Amino acid sequence: MPIRLRARAQTTREMSPVSARIDDFDLPDIAEDDSFRQVVRKLSFYFADAIELPSTFEQLRTTAAGNCLRVLVDHLHETCTNPAIVNALLALKWHYDDHEHLGLNETKSNACEIAAWRFLGRLSEREAMNFCLYEIPGLDVARGELRLQGHDQEAAERAPLLPRILPSPDDDAQRPLGSSSKRANLLSSLSRLTNASEDAGEERDPTLAFKSLNALEIAAVADAKRFLSQHVVQKIISGIWNGDIVFWDSLSVHATKKHRFYNPHTSDPFSRLRVPKYLKSWEVIFFAVFLCLYYAVLIVRDESRITATEVVLFVWIAAFFYDELSEWIDAGSIFYTTDIWNLFDMIMILIGFTFAVLRIIGITQHNASINGLAFDVLALEALFMMPRICSILSLSPYWGTLIPCLEEMAKDFIKFMVLVVIIYLGFLTTFSLVGRDVFDLAGMAGILTKIFFGSSYVGFDVMDQINPIFGPPLMIIFITLTSILLTGSLTGMLSNSFSRVITHAREEYLYVYSVYVLEASTSNRLTHFYPPFNLIALAIFRPLRLVFRRDEKFRAGRIVLLRLTHAPIVWAIQLYELIRRKVNSEYAGLDGPKESRRRSWRRDMPQARPSSGHSRHLWPASRETNLLRPDKREDDDMDTRTTVEVQIDELNRKIDNLTTVIMAMQENQSSVKPTTDSLS
């Protein structure tokens, strides 16, 4: 039966006339065992009834127009234990964004996004992590498990962003989330998700496209940038970035992907290779070696033969290409192009391949000019390699905030240059025809280009030579347009673009940062080889796939090769983490008891809502305790709380008690008033 709002709805109705009929809305009665499809349908019914007038994002957050969201969040926090609730809210946000009628649906989209992060804000850190990283299961879990046992596990290691291990004729789960075909399928599923009948066949179930997606991945593909920029979400993403939250804790044939807090005492050290922070660090080292090889080849510049340094450079380019190709295939074109640095990578690979081809042709044909051209082409690599090495700065908030601004300004500049080119071609044609006896087309193009870039005096010097009658007035008009109108308009437009984007640059930066973390961490590929070691795995196991069946032994072989080739990297990671833990413990000992970043992530707060009258249980106890190692007690997961946190919790408790008293007084007043009226 639908749950209706009572006392709190009356209080809200008395506070604001906008929400006068909010008590008539049926709040969604979401059971713990409801499927993702059912949760989406129930929430869509509520938003269809509760939101009837368009409202801006700020109005939903700060005015009475968002009362329906406060009531919904309170209701979900007190009654809902379904783990797919955040997934459903973000899927609905994407559904309303894609709708044709943007007025009311834009309001519903903003409402879904606000409700999602407000719901997470009511939870403890462990609960928020569970909701954000919960993956939507298939319709038949038991059948899926049976299929998994007989499925090629090594073949499943192709999609680092999302696990795609349960293929079926009806499911496009093998497609990466970022690919255009996968995105189109998700959009098609969204349009049927809220309208499909309950008795639809399994083979046509629109939720199949959402299998194995967690809430953060849905938010990324739905462009829920405000949701991803919230503090509670960024704490989870930062935990994944630093390796405090991991998806793999062992490197074995039977290892399974599951989100959990990192335990250095029980986890396999080789599982730290999947931490995004260490992936980025190795990327910087890889490009630093790339730069050294680049300088060594260009400084020597031996055009008569291919040196050993050039051979190593070719190997480096090949490893770089294979790593980028794997990332593009795994993540898909949409996610891959989200990061601007991937464009630099593709250009660097293109230049490297061009150099290799020209170099081989020049050596085989003994052509000195082609060899010289090859080295000149390689010299262009520095234009992109230098910024690429410094791309590590984009992970900092300051530099990362400027990049979205520069991207938007570059887009506006390209659009404005279309108008400039049109005007330029018109004047170039006129001047070339009028002054054809004095200047040719190439000479006139050079003169107009100099004028456009500030050399106005050149135009005044040649305007009489072009044509005594039409030359001076046309040249004055052209100089006025370029030096005053177009240049001033371009400057003002770029200034407005910068000021417009800088207000939301933090959201853009955090969105790109979040997508990078998700691509690098939530991977179904257990054995991920760093370049250039990926060429070794390619050379050994790619031919074997054509001969032997890919079974557990095949995967075990990859694990052995990974341990042999990456052992020095793992030792360096272990040494770094040991020093970091030691420094953090010494620092805490000097200044009193303080929580390190890792331990603060492992704090659970069951007293988050003492006024709700019951404790929250997101999942059965057996599922919840699986987040920790079996040999660790739940009490070990608690840390000493600081004085400020205790005071904040005490203040929240007092506010909840005061709210309860006020609501009870209002109920008494509302019950006494009808009695007084009847007596009078």
UniProtKB/TrEMBL annotation:
Keywords for the protein's UniProt record, in alphabetical order: Coiled coil, Membrane, Transmembrane, Transmembrane helix
Top-level taxon: Eukaryota
Residues of the signal peptide: none
Domain (Calcium channel YVC1-like C-terminal transmembrane): residue spans on this chain: 287-578
Compositionally skewed regions (Basic and acidic residues) per UniProt: 629-641
Region (Disordered): 159-180, 589-641
Entries under InterPro entries matching the protein: TRP_calcium_channel, YVC1_C
Segments forming a coiled coil: 641-668
TM helices/strands, residue ranges: 282-300, 343-362, 382-401, 413-435, 441-462, 474-494, 529-548
Membrane as UniProt keyword: yes
Pfam families named in the record: YVC1_C (PF23317)
Classification via PANTHER family: ION TRANSPORT DOMAIN-CONTAINING PROTEIN, NONSELECTIVE CATION CHANNEL PROTEIN
Name by which UniProt lists this protein: Calcium channel YVC1
Organism: Tolypocladium capitatum
Source lineage: Eukaryota, Fungi, Dikarya, Ascomycota, Pezizomycotina
